[in-house]
């Protein structure tokens, strides 16, 4: 398939590499020349700009993986943007994590110019991107989802259609809102139980067979030593950074503001991560938030 | 076995009935004569007071199931209380849900008089009490736990030893702290996704295969219609009442205060349930809290 | 003085009328023709567009009073915007309430084209706009402040220089963040004292001579009947609407996010107003938030 | 006057000294012999126990100043307590800060034995106790208030009658709930304004002439250097300790729980102080909470 790929950062690079390995004809662009070089060595054709990717003759599918809404707007809607140059009929697929309102605005602009568009944010982190085991939450028309699915399956394992345009972003923002809340909840519960004298392993065992059970306790427990494979058991390195959770909680409260829905717990979670990040811990896995709860006076 | 049972309310009555059916010699007391009569018809011997239960000759095990710490203190530590009258060596088993500090204080007083004691709060509600499928979270010495286990197994299915005295209460309070937080988190996430245009079934499907997954989404989803068997799909009747969740969050924040641990999310959850209860919804299942999030102006 | 005025809404119209009455040569524009007509009858010259106001020959001062950052961006930075057309040297004065980041961005763009610019958000409401008793919080160069001051003094009473560009917005957002928090604090304190049996007048008297004293208790008490002149004593009509407080708390948490500062209380206040507004009370004075605290089951 | 005084801690000692200096016949007791000695040197008669104070022949007034509700219960209601021994007609006056429910329970028990009782918690700290400038918030009958007033005036400057029994505690708990909330609000507002580039003095000036004005900004500003006399300008030493604010917020949320009133902001404030105290800062003045907001990564 003739595919363009714009945005070769920590996530985009391994995703594009998986597509290159799968044998697609790939044209790529990134602001950082080194990232473009890495793909060129894997057989991709470098382009000099985003708009050059959009103009590739015979292009069938164009993917973007960008850091935030501002870049998505600029790459798609700018004067030298994709929509101004791409041929009608090319399927557009934005894998960035942004707010649903912007995703829908860009999808509408694409539709107005005769392009089909999907939003397909991912979860699974850089590890999932490298292993090709990402989850894609996809918003857009059923037929376009069907068309994109085989390509997505070369980068991920779990490909879910969430409904119309923007719904991929909605699904991700809702999931991560709950994730942020339940992680702090898990941290408060584990810290409280241990402070009151329980063994953390025993406590996790009780919770995981009871109504408090959640991904944050049974798969990613924030208490050190409970799960050998979890970031908590290796000093909170790797995993999903606190700064990324902070970003996603920002998207969630912003989206809630747009529809005037009160999300008191989500807003508080955002502020707790904001304090944690300000104190210099934004690079730690997000389960490290338990440290801000347990923190005591130094001796 | 020669068993005494004090406290025959909504939970205690069906628990005692299960013990009567299992063939134990049961002596019972409650402030409400009607509750005592119901057990007498099932073959139990009525007693005129708590202290009379404690004085039954040859008593081996004494269970209590009381509404709150004040009653536990009074029944065990009062001038006409159990500890002043019971023979040394009788195993005491308190199934009430109270704060861990009081549980430990009573257990120490029992030990000082030569009695062994376990705290064994339950989860599973009146349905579980009737069906004999409760979960018991048990704190106390290993040998005492082993001795009580066969009797507990006649009232419940999942019997967990949580460590020393008071740890049954610690496990319950920690679990329910997390449960209250994750239920509101689930409610915010479901309400936000739906407000932004997603189908609730599809959204629940995504969350339940992602990192937001929790008991409050996959087993007890608060959004009406997502899970046919959940209280949300029958007008939030039955289930675990909001007033009970409010009580447990009160125990959790109180316990956190005793060990000076910050539980910001738990404290906020408590206040949200306090508002909900004040508005007259304390009798609804606790998943009904989603109504306070979605509430709109009436037309 | 030769003055342009863009934005003649509930606030802008009475402000412009005060300038017209003071004898200035006024050219005005608004999207709503009726608003322009009202000013024309007071002697102002109507313009057909924002850019036409900017092009008035001999213009000395250009004021804008717009609803939000999006309109400020469009009016100043758009292709048909003020900056593209206005003569260098004209003093620009934006009285809109927007986030400090946007205010600084626009001020920088103005400076790049040789224009001086001040941000000067107001407080005092429509009543203050009509009576000419507004407070102006002004950010920008000292000399520009001195130049604008006489004109501002014709619309307001309290004109404060807050420092460099954007600082007018910073002062307003900080003040209103605290105002939103202390109003809910006052509501919780008054409601708690009354629920515990105190007379609201006596309670307010104690607080107002103690350390809880604040503008929200001594000047604008949210409890009905305590202050005869306050909105609480007339059904929460008039005053400063809950939806405006909600907007300002949104600006505050957004600004806090930009500098990564945790504002947990502010974020919670925002969510409480978001729930209140969603329930249909956004038009009530913001002290009506006490109703959401005291709300009980209807009989 | 023939006066008994029980509880000679940091607050009680200077209060009792002021009464001794005023020439009253004083009989005193405290658990700590050193405190009793200090009063004896000032002319007071030492007693061997609380009950001995209560039995002083001709006693007219008995004051207590105790750390918490548990001690108040024990001293008044215990088997060797005041009520079991004091003559009917002696006026009882408890200056401890405790929850209103306990205050009312003790007042009822006193009334049942023919004693009149007032609750009269203070504000003003140890400085006010020494200088005799405390504020007394008094609950109880009008006639008893009139009888106690002259003695209170020898220890304080502002003596306020707040209504019936317990209302002194209600007034204090309501005031300090608001104080804790508005102090954190002031800290968030000051920190936000400064982070966004404003001078703290200028910002405080704007707020203090605007609607954000409160005791926490105009008299006790938490930002260092704004008010030379405030604890913030001397490293947060002296003043009203964070641990005392934490205690009072605990009383407030407990009282709110008793009347089922939601106090979301108060509960969050309590948790923020709980974290601050856990981190070892409980001895700093409560305005130091601004440090937990501004805290950054150390270099």
Brief write-up:
The structure is a homotetramer of 299-residue chains. Chain A has 299 residues and is α/β, with parallel strands linked by helices.
**SSE order of chain A, as H and E?**
EHEHEHEHEHEEHEHEHHHHHH
Largest interface: A-B, 67 and 67 residues
Beta-strand percent range of chain A: 5-15%
Terminus-to-terminus distance of chain A = 63 Å
Uncertain ranges of chain A: none
CATH class of the largest domain in chain A: Alpha Beta
Please provide the count of β strands of chain A. 9
Average residue-wise pLDDT of chain A? 96
Percent helix among the residues of chain A? 40-55%
| Coarse shape of chain A | elongated
Structure overview:
The structure is a homotetramer of 299-residue chains. The first copy, chain A, is an alpha/beta fold and 299 residues long. The first copy, chain A, has 2 domains: 2-165, Rossmann fold; 170-294, N-(1-d-carboxylethyl)-l-norvaline Dehydrogenase, domain 2 (Orthogonal Bundle), CATH 1.10.1040.10. The first copy, chain A, has 13 helices and 9 strands. Chain A has helices at 12-21, 33-41, 50-54, 69-77, 100-112, 125-131, 142-152, 167-195, 200-208, 215-218, 242-258, 264-281, 290-294, and strands at residues 2-6, 25-29, 45-46, 61-64, 91-94, 116-119, 122-123, 134-138, 156-161. Chain A has a 6-stranded parallel sheet with strand order 3-2-1-4-5-6, sandwiched between helices. In chain A, strands 7-8-9 form a 3-stranded mixed sheet. In chain A, helix 4 (69-77) runs parallel beside helix 5 (100-112). The longest helix of chain A is centred in the middle third of the chain and has 29 residues, at 167-195. The first copy, chain A, is elongated. Chain A starts with a strand and ends in a 5-residue tail after the last helix.
